[in-house]
Design brief:
The structure is a single chain. By secondary structure, the chain is of the alpha+beta class. It is built from 9 helices and 8 strands. It folds into 2 domains: 71 residues, Orthogonal Bundle (Arc Repressor Mutant, subunit A); 169 residues, GAF domain (Beta-Lactamase). The protein has a 6-stranded antiparallel sheet, sandwiched between helices. Helix 1 crosses helix 2, helix 2 packs across helix 3 and helix 5 packs antiparallel against helix 9. The radius of gyration is 20 Å and the shape is globular. The N terminus is likely disordered.
């Protein structure tokens, strides 16, 4: 489930809140981080629904095209109409509309991977991924998310927030390591945020992927709060960290100015 948990019992006091719709969305959300088709029993378990309620919702979502039966008939998968919604979200998002030409120019200049991730509390969600010459599969996927507390983009975004709000996010964050070098100690994470606040950018070494160096700057809204971050990622086999910072920070800062100006 997301931060905005649709099964939150507090929603019961909201007369406008549609529980049936929320349960249907919870079925779609149950596929998050699944690595294979989900059985009806697994969907019921992940959503907290009864088996009969899950069965009715799965049937309805299949009829509408949002779910499909796996080839072997042993589970269910999300279906193509989900991508239609994803496309519409990306197409209509004002930050992405402004950023797209700027990111293409940044990718041309740096010749390394360029990403834009959107700030969503305890996670950063990748919305644009412009690839370089070497990639892992997960690094090509729009919609992939990483912990805000354990990524260059997250540190850069958190640097725009007051300390009290940072503490609240750290209290909610799972603080799970993605690599052996991922920072999970709150004080160490706070130190990285403080450095990003001082420098105007965050530099991360092997936080999301071993062998990777990444630099990020936050995209602020009109009130100075983070809406996302732009990051450039390279290989430690090709770059010393400080050389990477010196080379990438100026064009990255120019890109952020371009996004804000547009």
């Amino acid at each position: 489930m997301t931060e905005n948990d649709h099964s939150d019992p507090s929603k019961g006091a909201d007369g406008m809140f549609n529980q049936s719709l929320a349960r249907g969305l919870s079925v779609l959300e149950s596929f998050r981080d699944a690595d294979r088709p989900l059985s009806l029993a697994q969907i019921a378990s992940r959503t907290g629904l009864t088996r009969s309620a899950a069965q009715r919702l799965v049937h309805t979502l299949r009829k509408l095209g949002y779910l499909t039966l796996a080839d072997d008939g042993r589970g269910f998968l999300l279906n193509l109409p989900i991508l239609d919604l994803t496309h519409d979200y990306l197409r209509m998002n004002p930050v992405l509309r402004r950023a797209s030409p700027v990111l293409l120019e940044l990718r041309r200049q740096v010749q390394e991977r360029v990403d834009l991730s959107l700030f969503d509390g305890v996670r950063m969600v990748y919305a644009t991924r412009l690839q370089s010459k070497r990639e892992a599969f997960f690094a090509t996927l729009v919609g992939h998310s990483v912990p805000t507390t354990g990524s260059s983009g997250g540190w850069a975004a958190l640097a725009l927030l007051p300390d009290a709000e940072i503490d609240q996010i750290l209290a909610r964050a799972p603080l799970r390591p993605l690599t052996p070098r991922s920072l999970t100690d709150p004080d160490a994470i706070r130190a990285q945020i403080a450095t990003a606040r001082r420098d105007g950018h965050a530099l991360a070494l092997e936080q999301v992927l071993m062998g990777e160096v990444a630099i990020a700057m936050a995209i602020p809204d009109a009130d100075g709060r983070p809406v996302g971050s732009v990051h450039v990622a390279g290989s430690l086999a090709e770059w010393a960290p400080e050389d990477f910072r010196r080379r990438m920070a100026p064009p990255l800062a120019e890109a952020i100015r371009g996004i804000r100006a547009s």
